[in-house]
Amino acid sequence: MLPSVKSVWLDAFNDPVAGISAYTPCVHTCNLFGDGENRLVIADEDRKLKIWKGTQKASEHPLLDTPVAICSYISENTAPRLPALAVAAGSHIYIYRNLRPYYKFVLPPENVNTEEQDIWQKVMEGEIVIGEAVAQLTRLQDAGVVLQTRSLQLMNIGDPDAKMAFVEHWQGQPLVATTVITCMDVVKQAIDEPDAVSCLVVGTESGRILILNPAGTAIVKNIWVGITPAMIAVQGELDVGYRITVAGRDGKLYHIRNGELSQTIIQLEAQPVGLVRLAKHVAVGCMNDVVHAYTPTGHKSWSLYLPCHILAMQRMEVTGQRNTKALIVALSNGEVRVYNEKLLVSVHVSPNPVTALWFGRYGREDNTLLAITKSGALDIKMLPRTANLEAGAIGGGPPPEQEIPLAVPKKTRLYVEQTQREREQAADMHRTFQRDLAKLRLTTARAYVKVLTDGQGAAAFTTNTNLSLSLNIAGLGPRFRLSLLLRNDGSTQLNDIPVALRADAGLYSLGKTQFTIPFLVPGLQYTFEVPVTAIDPMAGTGTITVLLLAPGGVSSSAPLLQAQIKMPMSEPEEVE
Amino acid sequence: MGFFDKLLSLFGMSGKKVNVLVVGLDNSGKTTIIERLKPRPRQAAEVAPTVGFTVDEVEKGPLTFTVFDMSGAGRYRTLWEQYYREADAVVFVVDSADKLRMVVARDEMEHMLKHSNMRKVPILYFANKKDLPVAMPPVEIAQALGLDDIKDRPWQIVPSNGLTGEGVDKGIDWLAERLS
């Protein structure tokens, strides 16, 4: 089914026992120490920040919480552009500089329902018993209030003693609504350059998108989406114009344009599993193994139907001589595919399903693909300088013949004159054409009428066999003699021509209603006679139709020739 | 070589000119190695990444090397093939410590050997930066680059240290022997 698409990658390094467990948002490369050699930074699920340099792990740093996402960005315009590394975990963003903890940003608390707060206040002060508090909380929940985790936990504890201990545990601490980070990305502040000052964009469990200032100390934009963002994709610059595509937990795509939530909401067929921004589109991978690409206005451009589940998606922004923005998709059967727009340009199979992908500069090589597999292996591949990712290079797409220009002849003098004439006498030509068209219609109509009326007279001829037939009636009645004068005007003789005669059986009786002409020699006049008797001379007159049928052996039911004669009024029978 | 040429070469004046193309990935030490070929007073202590290419003339016994020091940066590598036709010898510098990009070096080398303008000229490989603790031995590098498959032209791999000049002369001597 697949065209034989090969891998474009060079296998640089593979460590099957790297022991990494991470997903795409937690893998990143950056110029960590400002020495021009990019390090691989992995925020591992085992709460460790792992730094790789070249083919070896350089260091490990413990994290306080399970990481959600990591990013690096330039926070200051000062001379050594040292990127800040941001690790999102729980409700905090830990910002590292030079791999040293530098700052911790805490998400602001959300508003808490006042009634819920009151209940906790009372239960802590002992004004109401725990059972009463739980009943009130249940009522509140039934009324549609979204309760805080602490309340839900209390309601779920079955043992009364444990309930007591739980309240005791939180004694004196006011009820606050903490939220956690679900996704994180970076937006450039003013200019789109690799080392331009950027800001963090964070999605929270409470359904907000927050944009931080470059230092990461304060929120400059707080956008309420209303649904928990699962993934975000950012395009543009904060000061110039930006667009954030949000894949929500409810399986819909939301768009934020310059801080405003757009009315365009895209309902996906299935839950999104990956969101990648490309050159002109945003590609969203869904659980039904389809990748859809949407334009910024929300129109769908194309879809890719994949053979099995999507495990990871990543943007492939090739730098250097080409500026291709392609899409890398890792599938559950171990395949890693590269799509340039809709066209599959590379496939390679990993022995283990890939869970995390990163494409970027690693070490000193610009176009490097880093893949982490389910078994914890690290695989590093590099894009060779000569790799061709263009459409049409590897099968598919329009055929190469399309690119060959047609051999259009040169503009001759005749052609030029004709064009000139057409331009000057367009009106005349149109009129002539219309007149000819009318003539054609008239001819057609005449031919049609002829077809309808043919064979209605006493003499007839056909064109395709060159026969002519004329009918004569002799006698006064009631006995007549019908003579058929038949002449073959063609060049070949005709054999075995059946003749059929038709008349109103109530008026006339025919001597024979059918007979066969054995032979018709060209040029001779044949005469056949058929006696006709009028049954009742007083009954009026009718017509007799003579049909010459197709010769024997020809399987055509259409008569060759048809002639009709109107019978004269019959004399009454003489009684002797 | 006639008697007169021999006499001239004795005085180091013969000046048979050969074009040597120096290629390799960025940061492998091409410019540094060329600096070590120059007479000591003319050597520069610090080198900056080469942009495009630079041309130097170096005398080595009876030969005058015209050295084309190509930039190894990705965007300048297309420039290499412009000089294949004139090259009488190629020096390919490999960073022994850069295990990760050995495959890229191999890819570039294979493209170079396949190129139609490239004649069957001798190739000298410098396994540079041999002083670094993570440096690969020359045998491993030769294996990683698939040098054993090169049967149609003479080649040699020499471990070197561009900073001290160790091994550089040994390699250039081999090249001079091939070319004279």
Automatic annotation (TrEMBL), chain A:
<dbReference type="GO" id="GO:0005113">
    <property type="term" value="F:patched binding"/>
</dbReference>
<dbReference type="InterPro" id="IPR036322">
    <property type="entry name" value="WD40_repeat_dom_sf"/>
</dbReference>
<dbReference type="GO" id="GO:0005119">
    <property type="term" value="F:smoothened binding"/>
</dbReference>
<dbReference type="GO" id="GO:0034464">
    <property type="term" value="C:BBSome"/>
</dbReference>
<feature type="domain" description="Bardet-Biedl syndrome 1 N-terminal">
    <location>
        <begin position="9"/>
        <end position="257"/>
    </location>
</feature>
<dbReference type="InterPro" id="IPR032728">
    <property type="entry name" value="BBS1_N"/>
</dbReference>
<protein>
    <submittedName>
        <fullName>Uncharacterized protein</fullName>
    </submittedName>
</protein>
<dbReference type="Pfam" id="PF14779">
    <property type="entry name" value="BBS1"/>
</dbReference>
<dbReference type="GO" id="GO:0005815">
    <property type="term" value="C:microtubule organizing center"/>
</dbReference>
<dbReference type="GO" id="GO:1905515">
    <property type="term" value="P:non-motile cilium assembly"/>
</dbReference>
<feature type="domain" description="Bardet-Biedl syndrome 1 protein GAE">
    <location>
        <begin position="468"/>
        <end position="571"/>
    </location>
</feature>
<dbReference type="GO" id="GO:0061512">
    <property type="term" value="P:protein localization to cilium"/>
</dbReference>
<dbReference type="InterPro" id="IPR028784">
    <property type="entry name" value="BBS1"/>
</dbReference>
<dbReference type="InterPro" id="IPR056419">
    <property type="entry name" value="GAE_BBS1"/>
</dbReference>
<dbReference type="Pfam" id="PF23304">
    <property type="entry name" value="GAE_BBS1"/>
</dbReference>
<dbReference type="GO" id="GO:0005930">
    <property type="term" value="C:axoneme"/>
</dbReference>
From TrEMBL, chain B:
<feature type="binding site">
    <location>
        <position position="32"/>
    </location>
    <ligand>
        <name>GTP</name>
    </ligand>
</feature>
<feature type="binding site">
    <location>
        <position position="27"/>
    </location>
    <ligand>
        <name>GTP</name>
    </ligand>
</feature>
<dbReference type="GO" id="GO:0006886">
    <property type="term" value="P:intracellular protein transport"/>
</dbReference>
<feature type="binding site">
    <location>
        <position position="30"/>
    </location>
    <ligand>
        <name>GDP</name>
    </ligand>
</feature>
<feature type="binding site">
    <location>
        <position position="28"/>
    </location>
    <ligand>
        <name>GDP</name>
    </ligand>
</feature>
<keyword id="KW-0813">Transport</keyword>
<feature type="binding site">
    <location>
        <position position="31"/>
    </location>
    <ligand>
        <name>Mg(2+)</name>
    </ligand>
</feature>
<comment type="similarity">
    <text>Belongs to the small GTPase superfamily. Arf family.</text>
</comment>
<dbReference type="GO" id="GO:0005930">
    <property type="term" value="C:axoneme"/>
</dbReference>
<keyword id="KW-0547">Nucleotide-binding</keyword>
<feature type="binding site">
    <location>
        <position position="131"/>
    </location>
    <ligand>
        <name>GTP</name>
    </ligand>
</feature>
<feature type="binding site">
    <location>
        <position position="128"/>
    </location>
    <ligand>
        <name>GDP</name>
    </ligand>
</feature>
<feature type="binding site">
    <location>
        <position position="129"/>
    </location>
    <ligand>
        <name>GDP</name>
    </ligand>
</feature>
<feature type="binding site">
    <location>
        <position position="128"/>
    </location>
    <ligand>
        <name>GTP</name>
    </ligand>
</feature>
<feature type="binding site">
    <location>
        <position position="32"/>
    </location>
    <ligand>
        <name>GDP</name>
    </ligand>
</feature>
<keyword id="KW-0342">GTP-binding</keyword>
<keyword id="KW-0472">Membrane</keyword>
<feature type="binding site">
    <location>
        <position position="31"/>
    </location>
    <ligand>
        <name>GTP</name>
    </ligand>
</feature>
<keyword id="KW-0931">ER-Golgi transport</keyword>
<feature type="binding site">
    <location>
        <position position="72"/>
    </location>
    <ligand>
        <name>GTP</name>
    </ligand>
</feature>
<feature type="binding site">
    <location>
        <begin position="128"/>
        <end position="131"/>
    </location>
    <ligand>
        <name>GTP</name>
    </ligand>
</feature>
<feature type="binding site">
    <location>
        <position position="29"/>
    </location>
    <ligand>
        <name>GDP</name>
    </ligand>
</feature>
